[in-house]
Amino acid sequence: MMKKIMKALLSLLMIVPVSGCSGEKTVGRDIKIDDITEFYYTYSSSTNPPDYQRYRFYVEDGTCMFYHEARKGDHWPLTEDDITVSGKVELTEEQWKEFFELLNNGKVKKREEHLESGDPGPWLYLYWKKDGGEVQEFSFETGGRVLEFVEFCKKLAAQ
User: Fold this and answer.
1) SS3 annotation, the chain
2) Cα–Cα distance for residue pair 62/35, rounded to 1 Å
3) pLDDT tens for each residue of 26-71
4) What is the mean pLDDT of the chain?
5) pLDDT top residue among 1 and 113
6) Positive or negative, the Cα torsion across 36, 37, 41, 46?
7) Residue 54's CB: how many other CB atoms inside 10 A?
8) Which residue of 27, 59, 91, 119 shows the fewest CB atoms closer than 10 Å?
């Protein structure tokens, strides 16, 4: 009898971590502001001329940070050697809250690779405490929210 109970408990322990990270999550409801550890927005196009833009929000030693990087060149793919503008900014509490509000009500689902699609993106990934390395692919609540986010990033990059 004790063997059956132990076996059942072991089975449950193996299921719980997987099922806890397999479904779609909503920022603001399932993922709180203090849960976010990193967020990437990357746009990469092979147009002529190619275009690359990355925005990264992250927490480093308890400090909220913003990093931006643009790459320009006449060849594809653009690499780190093609970085034309980059910088990082320490965010105020208000700026971190504004960032979070832009992500609020966005969805995070199981991460998929889209290498074969040829789509320039933007590619959006949200890393958060307990994401289990799987539930990270982000989508904004609306297209208008994406535009607001990009404008917010441009203002931060200008600092």
Assistant:
1) CHHHHHHHHHHHHHHHHHHHCCCCEEECCCECHHHEEEEEEEEEECCCCCEEEEEEEEEECCEEEEEEEEEECCCCCCCHHHEEEEEEEECCHHHHHHHHHHHCCCEEEECCCCHHHCCCCCEEEEEECCCCCCEEEEECCCHHHHHHHHHHHHHHHCC
2) 12
3) 999 999 999 999 999 999 988 888 899 999 999 999 999 999 999 9
4) 85
5) 113
6) negative
7) 20
8) 119
Residue with token string 């889209």: 114
In the block, tokens 């699609």 appear at 117
> For residues 34 and 15, is the Cβ–Cβ distance under 8 A?
no
Where b means 16+ CB within 10 Å and e means fewer, 13-43 reads eeeeeeeebeeebebeeebeeeebebbbbbb
Rounded distance, CA 18 to CA 54, Å? 31
What's the confidence (pLDDT) of residue 131? Answer: 86
Q: Quick check: 126 pLDDT over 80?
A: yes
Q: Which amino acid is at 14?
A: M
